[in-house]
Design a protein that fits this description.
It is a single chain. By secondary structure, this protein is of the alpha+beta class. It contains 18 helices and 17 strands. A 5-stranded mixed sheet has the order 2-1-5-4-3. Strands 7-6-10-9-8 form a 5-stranded antiparallel sheet, with helices on one face. A 5-stranded mixed sheet has the order 12-14-15-17-16. Strand 14 (510-518) and strand 15 (523-530) form a beta hairpin. The chain starts with a helix and ends in an 8-residue tail after the last helix.
Length: 612
């Protein structure tokens, strides 16, 4: 073995340097990279697979928790309905006509209450097997088709509560699969009443759906009642690996779904106080794609780590070999004397170079003095400086971004069932749009100003409830869409009426907004009246005296002074505000302006309506 090793070393040392470098690259770079890369890819695949398995199982647990929450809630509600003595007594009666049945249940709204206040409930139905029972409100007469449906048969023969995937048709004729709680209502006679409470499909979608996961829900080994893919509804063998014989079936691994392989987690949800079970199937839409992407990226990086050094090594070998050969050629030309050197034992190229070096040494010594006479050239480097200018860009909030943001928040409130918040946001957006649209404008119409005031009052109505009520009145002969007014003129008056006039009013507060002609009919007067506390004569006199002086009591602020000055500057000194008040009965603030119509202003401005 020692002899073989020595022979190999001798061959390696005396091989061409190109061969030596290639061997060293293979042994020192390629083999370790392949081994390390293979181990890295295997480790990444294992780690990512375990990571996505945990994620898909976690999402499955989340869906199962949501289902348990809503089904438990519906189960409790069903008990309230099924044991409602008033309902049982009414259902146990015999009715001589459908009109008598309708009259009996006309004021019974328990089911309507639950449907309205619990977003998870899509529909509540009670099927009654009695004569003269019409389809009325939440009550349905049992049909021949119902009698042959499995859920009705089971409910008719047992008293236990159970869950079922049912195919229901609503009042509009739309049919769909849904998860429903079914239980028999025990009546005082031998007739049968079956309660069916279905879960809202939109509620499940909003609570369950995520971008990265698809969900399939099926009842026992029957039809699918919910799926991220609408085409799956009603299919009974979509997930064929479920074993219904197992009490608590669980599975995590590969799943064939619509012709593709996915990572999936399946678990069983045992319903509370019911023998029914739901199979929750969670499918990761991105797990294997992510694993493949990371694997491919790792493989590409590994190949680049091998190929790029290989290319660089190839260029280096060619360059190094060429340099040595050039050196040998030049040294052979320059050699003309023989010198006694110590010897050299190396690779093929270096041995040849050393032989040439022996011939060149003395020649180089003879030429040392001549080399000092060489001309040294200097190169002057020119550096240019470039001046860079930085400009500060002032960004301005786009009002459309604000409106779109408010609309997004409003839609989320609607989705969450918070209609009051959605209405408040809509009113706020409408008010802000009016303010922004009229900032800097010269005139608007009385109709638009009234619309803005109504929006403002609606917002205050949401805030104060019955403390704030309002009424708008425009006399006949006045067209508010044609008469112009200064924008944002009247809101401060209405605001004062609410904040100060109705300050002590706890309910029944009223703001009356009345637009009518004044004087000889060429002026319009706008009265804003509240039924609040009013002012005593001394306080009213002080308000009237200081209306033109800007020294108004802080109780009403300086807003009225500003409005009065705007009116006088625009329409003339004969126009402006007046205040009337009776202590304990209320206050009226009147704004008198000159009637100016769109056509008149267009003629005065030479046809330019930009001010509107």
């Amino acid at each position: 073995m020692s002899s073989g090793k020595s022979k190999f070393n001798h061959k390696f040392r005396n091989a061409k340097i190109t061969t030596q470098m290639i061997i060293m690259f293979i042994v020192a770079v390629m083999l370790p990279m392949f081994v390390a890369g293979g181990a890295l890819i295997t480790t990444n695949i294992t780690s990512l697979t375990e990571y996505h398995r945990n994620l898909v199982q976690s999402n499955n647990d989340r869906v199962r928790s949501i289902l348990y929450e809503i089904t438990s809630q519906i189960h409790n509600i069903s008990g309230d309905i099924a044991y409602d003595k008033e309902l049982i007594d009414m259902l146990s009666q015999d009715y001589v006509s459908e009109d008598e049945f309708k009259a009996t249940f006309a004021n019974y709204d328990t089911m309507d209450y639950f449907i309205t206040n619990y977003t998870g409930i899509d529909d509540i139905r009670i099927y009654i097997d009695k004569k003269n029972v019409p389809n009325y409100k939440c009550f349905y007469k049992v049909t021949t088709e119902n009698r042959y449906e499995l859920w009705y048969k089971e409910a008719s023969t047992q008293f236990s509560v159970f869950w079922e995937s049912v195919y229901l048709t609503d009042s509009f004729g739309n049919s769909s699969w849904t998860l429903a709680l079914v239980r028999r209502i025990t009546l005082n006679d031998d007739s049968v009443a079956v309660l069916v409470m279905s879960i809202s499909d939109n509620y499940l979608k909003n609570r369950i759906e995520t971008t990265d996961y698809s969900t399939i829900l099926s009842m026992n080994d029957r039809e699918v009642f919910y799926s991220s893919n609408r085409d799956d509804y009603g299919k009974s063998e979509l997930v064929d690996i479920i074993d219904p014989t197992q009490l608590f079936f669980t599975y995590i691994g590969n799943l064939a779904y619509h012709g593709n392989e996915y990572m999936a987690s399946i678990s069983t949800l045992k319903m509370a106080s019911s023998p029914s079970s739901i199979y929750v199937t969670t499918i990761s839409n991105t797990a294997y794609d992510n694993i493949k992407t990371v694997t491919y990226m790792t493989l590409i990086i590994l190949l680049l780590a091998i190929i790029l050094p290989g290319i660089l090594m190839g260029f280096f070998i060619r360059f190094f070999t060429r340099q040595i050969n050039d050196l040998r050629y030049e040294m052979n030309k320059a050699s003309n004397e023989n010198y006694d050197l110590s010897g050299f034992d190396g690779s093929y190229e270096l041995n040849m170079a050393y032989s040439d070096l022996q011939l060149m040494v003395e020649k180089i010594k003879d030429q040392d003095e001549k080399m000092y006479n060489g001309k040294i050239t200097e190169q002057i480097l020119m550096n240019e400086q470039q001046k860079m200018e930085f400009q500060m860009l002032a960004s301005q909030i786009n009002p459309h971004f604000l409106y779109n943001t408010l609309e997004t928040i409003r839609m989320k409130a609607i989705t969450a069932g918070d209609r009051e918040t959605a209405t408040a946001i809509q009113l706020l957006g409408r008010s802000m749009r009016y303010v922004l649209d009229n900032t800097g404008t010269q005139y608007t119409t009385i109709a638009k100003e009234i619309s803005h005031i109504e929006t403002y009052l609606q917002i205050q109505k949401l805030r104060f409830g019955d403390r704030v009520n309002y009424e708008f009145k425009v006399d006949d002969g006045l067209d508010p869409d044609e008469i112009l007014i200064l924008p944002l003129l009247l809101q401060p008056i209405v605001e004062n009426a609410i904040l100060h006039g109705l300050e002590e009013v706890e309910s029944g507060g009223m703001i009356l907004f009345h637009v009518h002609r004044s004087g000889d009919g060429e002026d319009v007067r706008i009265d804003i009246t509240d039924n609040g506390c009013g002012m005593d004569p001394l306080e009213l006199k002080k308000m009237q005296e200081n209306l033109d002086l800007g020294n108004i009591d802080k109780r009403y602020g300086i807003g009225l002074y500003n409005i009065n000055q705007r009116i006088k500057l625009c329409y003339g000194q004969q126009y402006g505000l007046t205040i009337e008040s009776i202590q304990g009965k209320g206050t009226t603030v009147s704004a008198t302006i000159k009637i100016m119509r769109k056509e008149e202003k267009a003629e005065n401005d030479g046809g330019d309506r930009s001010g509107e």
